[in-house]
Amino acid sequence: MKPGEKEDNFGKVPEVPAHLRAGGSATAKVEPTEERLVAAGVDPASLAASQGGVAGLPSEDDIIFTNPDDFEGSEAAIQGLFGVARKDWQESHTVAKNLSLVESKPLLIFFTDTPSPQSGGSPAAARLESELIARSDFADWAGENFVRLKLDFNVKDRKSADTARQSIALAKEKYLLSLKKRYKVGGFPALIVVATDGSVVQHVRGYRSGNSEFTWGLLRTALETSKARQKKFEEKLQKKGYRRWTGKNDLKILARLAAYKDGNLILIAPNGVRYETKESNLSAEDRLWIEEQKEKRG
């Protein structure tokens, strides 16, 4: 290496912890950060802000290290943990934020309070759900263009005689209220569109029966604004080495190549999550890009 040159990690793979080598488990045991904090009565968003971090992103302790001797098993574990087994609506703010960032889709948050016999709830939220949210055409469109998060403030077991259940319910309610405050939601329903750069693009407050098409129009406009912001966001990340990768299962992630050796890759997403995979699992375009990088490096 010549004086002044930086070491190139292309062709070098970081050492893997001993417990994750042959014979180890597919992934290190990870408890979701958000659930841990909620159980302890801590607001993850406030904690991240106080530590100078970004709300909803994992700490170093929550990064997954996969087993290089079992790539397929490791990938399946990663995909299950990070919600790739798709839900119509996510329930975890942390998971939804991660998916939004990695998949480069804006986040659509639905704040609601579902009416029930035990709670009056929000009739307006129920009308929005029946007139728009539950429609198949809207569901198809929203599923294709957004990562969706539903925050229902009708929390069960708040008055449960079971103290353990009640404690969990109250912790969940406290956390939901922190998100309500964070996104400046005054009442129900509310629809929030958040671009991948973290900026709030649209805040639809309330709902009047018969206004489904008007509300959908607001979300369409917000989507176009989000795409424009996404483009600028990705341009900044590309300068830092990030690009879009596509797997055989058509899963797309935004990540940078941290290391490569003998057909094995380590990719790191903008939120710090590490992925290990094989070159053979990638698209033809990705494999061609890797060959071009090899040629550039001789």
Please provide a brief summary of the model.
The protein is of the alpha+beta class and 298 residues long. It has helices at 33-39, 44-50, 71-81, 93-103, 123-133, 136-145, 163-182, 212-238, 284-296; strands at 107-112, 147-152, 190-194, 200-205, 242-246, 252-261, 264-268, 274-278.
Shape: elongated
How do the strands of the widest beta sheet line up side by side? 2-1-3-4
Order of helices and strands: HHHHEHHEHEEHEEEEH
Number of strands: 8
The number of distinct helices, counting runs of at least 4 residues, comes to 9
Low-confidence stretches: 4-85
Q: Give a quick account of the main beta sheet: strands, pairing sense, barrel closure.
A: 4 strands, mixed
Strand-residue fraction? Answer: 15-25%
Computed CA radius of gyration, to the nearest angstrom: 22 Å
Tell me which oligomeric state these chains represent: single chain
Relative helix content:
25-40%
In whole angstroms, the N-to-C terminal distance is 14 Å
Mean pLDDT: 74
The structure class reads alpha+beta
